[in-house]
UniProtKB/TrEMBL annotation:
<keyword id="KW-0963">Cytoplasm</keyword>
<dbReference type="InterPro" id="IPR008978">
    <property type="entry name" value="HSP20-like_chaperone"/>
</dbReference>
<dbReference type="GO" id="GO:0036158">
    <property type="term" value="P:outer dynein arm assembly"/>
</dbReference>
<feature type="domain" description="CS">
    <location>
        <begin position="3"/>
        <end position="87"/>
    </location>
</feature>
<keyword id="KW-0966">Cell projection</keyword>
<keyword id="KW-0524">Neurogenesis</keyword>
<feature type="coiled-coil region">
    <location>
        <begin position="105"/>
        <end position="172"/>
    </location>
</feature>
<dbReference type="GO" id="GO:0005634">
    <property type="term" value="C:nucleus"/>
</dbReference>
<dbReference type="GO" id="GO:0005576">
    <property type="term" value="C:extracellular region"/>
</dbReference>
<dbReference type="InterPro" id="IPR011990">
    <property type="entry name" value="TPR-like_helical_dom_sf"/>
</dbReference>
<dbReference type="GO" id="GO:0007507">
    <property type="term" value="P:heart development"/>
</dbReference>
<dbReference type="GO" id="GO:0120293">
    <property type="term" value="C:dynein axonemal particle"/>
</dbReference>
<dbReference type="Pfam" id="PF04969">
    <property type="entry name" value="CS"/>
</dbReference>
<dbReference type="InterPro" id="IPR007052">
    <property type="entry name" value="CS_dom"/>
</dbReference>
<keyword id="KW-0175">Coiled coil</keyword>
<feature type="repeat" description="TPR">
    <location>
        <begin position="360"/>
        <end position="393"/>
    </location>
</feature>
<dbReference type="GO" id="GO:0030331">
    <property type="term" value="F:nuclear estrogen receptor binding"/>
</dbReference>
Amino acid sequence: MPLMVKDYSWTQTESKVYISVPLKGMNAKHVDIFATDEYLKVHFPPFLFEAFLFAPVDDDKSIAKIGNGVAVFTLQKQKEELWNQLITYNEDREKQKEIRQKAILKAQEKAAADSKAKAAQKQEESKFALQTMMKLEEEERAKIQKIKNDECKKAVNELETWKLEHKSKEEKAIQPQRQSIQSVRNTEISKVEKLSVPLSSGRVGVIPQLGNKNVPKTENVNLPGPRSCGNIKVNFTPRVFPTALRESRVPEEEEWLKKQAEARRVVAADLAELDDLKPEERNPDWLKEKGDKFFVAGNYQAALNAYNLALKLNRKLPSLYSNRAACHLKLRNLHKAIEDSSQALELLTPPVADNAAARLKAHVRRGTAFCELELYVEGLQDYHAALKIDPDNQKLQEDTQKIRDIIQGALG
């Protein structure tokens, strides 16, 4: 049975109550405090302080501080008045039990409401992040469309200018020829023989009869001939991995292709919190592209949020883990960077030519995280694995040598 604390003290104003409870030399981490608007309990075994308050208080505005062996409570009264006493003395154990149960029920309801509010806030933040990404995408799309429209307008204007210039040149070239033709026609008409023929009305008509002189013709414009037709030979191959050793790696390549196809079909089963998302927002590839754009722009936290949401939809894509590891490196979450890089390497099996670049990035990112944690031996192992994939990489060779020098300096 707990020992009840009797040597507490309290003071009050019209709006607040101050209670001081001695902790009997107990450590603060062993003190359990439970409070509602009508009930206060401080439990530090084997001692117990329990108060059935004289009037209700506002527990949201009340505070508790523990220090120097004393727990001090500042309770905000719901109604401004002076209390006759701190505790309502009630010897009815059933009544006390009812008050305790009522306090526990209130605390549970409050905790459930807080949890629901946090979940709603988290959902709103996630929705806001997606809306921000969509807004950025829309702005980028509008910018690209504007560039296209400007280029199209510029091309049309240039074409119209070229047509006018070309037409003007043609007019200037044809004008002398027209003048020459008109001059010849005038000469021929003046020399024509007039023939009289009877008309139906009885009048005499004159029919001009042109001579047989040659009329100068317009010069032919040299135009390019029509394009000659031809055939383009296209060869198709069913192979996916066009490598020199592909014939000897057929089983591994087929296994990798099968894993990739299965990964693309995987969709998270629990999407209750994502019901308000649009269809394109449920696409992991779309979210990965958004994360990549945020990462390039230097907004690493936004990129991390995009990769997190994509992984909720599909946990079988190694590129999501590898890219999230890069974000963790930038944000100095080194242990998480190691975990994501390891997960990416686990999914990048079997090792084939198609996933060589992805495996190299994962090894380098994990090795970098190890070195940042001063675990240089583990980091050197990952850099050696990366060098096996790309032995001619000069930058990788230099970084590997730097790590060797650090290890040798530490050992020396």
